[in-house]
User: What shape does this take?
Amino acid sequence: MQDKEQSDRPRAVRHAEKRRTSTCAFADRIAQLSVDHYHKVVPESFRNEQKQTCVATIVAHHCLTKELRVIAMGVGTKFLSNSLLAEETASPSQYGDRVRDCHAEVLARRALRRYLSIQILNDIKSKKPDTQRDPFRMILENSQSTGDADNDTTKRPLYKLNPQITLHSYSSSAPCGNAVLKRFVTCRKEVYRDDLGPDEWPTPYHEDIPGHALSQGEFSLLLKEDKGHRITTEEKISLQKRKMTLLSPKQQSWPSNCQTNWCPAGTTTVFSGKGSLHTCSDKMLRWNILGWQGSLLSSFLEESIVPETLTVGRKLSAITCRRALCCRAVGSNVLKRSKCNRAKQTRKDNLFESSDSSFCVQVGTIIEDILPKHPVIMGTSVHLDEEGVVETDPDNPGQDVRFHSSLSFAWWLGTDESSPTIITIDNGSLECIDGATGWALDPSIVDNGQQGNRNCCQKGRNTFVSSVSTTALMNFFLSIHQNTTPSKEDDDLERTLGKLREMKLRYGGVYERRKAAYFAEHEVLRTWNRRHILQNSLY
Assistant: This one.
């Protein structure tokens, strides 16, 4: 009877996106360009069917011409299930073939890495584009040739971002995870800055957030929840061991580590066993510390690449986003605890060895010396979905917007004909990926508006390895490397998690040392779900 009464309760109707105040004219320019680009390159059949989705872009701004250009875009809301992730991680030959996480921010970053890889390879092969006609065809410049840190007899080019170019990111909704956890802050409405011109943005101001509510989850890492996963006995034992290793007895009883009722919708804690992939808030925090280019590309870059600003549409709380995406890495209470963690480390703990015993990374870096980039967080009044309305569900607050489609899209600037799945559109390359399986789809499926096969666990006739998958990006890096310093070691590289990690240690030494320092010492990031550690504990 009660269920019937609940089902008969009237549902209110509201607009999918509330009216908002933007931070400045530049934020609205970024957002409008991104929304227009989404409408221009993503098939109309998808846009008409899926009114509510998430879009993320990387936008380049030229300080002389004042021009803005989208250079990378991601569209999507899905990710692989725990069972598929475990299968891929344990694979002896296919690790990295699937795109594990098809959330928009993750795909935009993968598309950016593809775009940068193409630029570097073209420059090495002397296929330099006409930057006078289009300055965004090459946003990197060859700063010098440098000796390889591991072998001074070899030389390779080193790149940096053109000083006339700045990068800016956009998300149609606040990143999932800590960025939408508003219980620890007093939210303030955005105030429009009419003193800023159309090519100006505020200076970054990020107040210290001490982290006095660590036990309640204020700074906690979160995972994307797989509601269909049933945790096994082996997983329970592994999680308990990991919990006892990383946390003190007092910390193990904290609500942030033993309860999940405080987590934002669709997320869970790192010790719940209900997820494997970190939320976009966690990933963007890591990228803002180490760089958006990743480990392998860092070996060709003079400095890390991090966007100057982030413009957010729905669900924005600027103070919450600042905490989630950068400030929780340097909160005074966190750094104090991190120093204690460092004091407990032994020399053995500070060595991360690859299968090649001659190579190791020592965590001699002090994490206080690796400060995160603090992007300017901006709001926008531009809506992705101008006309959409949704029915509110009184029984499930916060779950009004539904993301039904598993189709996801990645787009990057420049023609890329390396895969049959790529469609050339608007001077760039578009690929459709089934977020439920991680495979790229035949363009004909997209043209016909069809969904991918959600039950497909193996590559089929119409599914392919994506051009932005770990495998494809790794192979692209090897192509660049072979054109500068050929190595027989990488000719027949096995596609396993261990081999990928070994390769990152070999080529991305500085990046990996910094990452290892954070994972070993940092009070928050040391609980990160590292795949090679989880694999060793389960298999």
About this structure: The chain has one domain: 11-538. The chain has a mean pLDDT of 83. Residues 104-124 form the longest helix (21 residues).
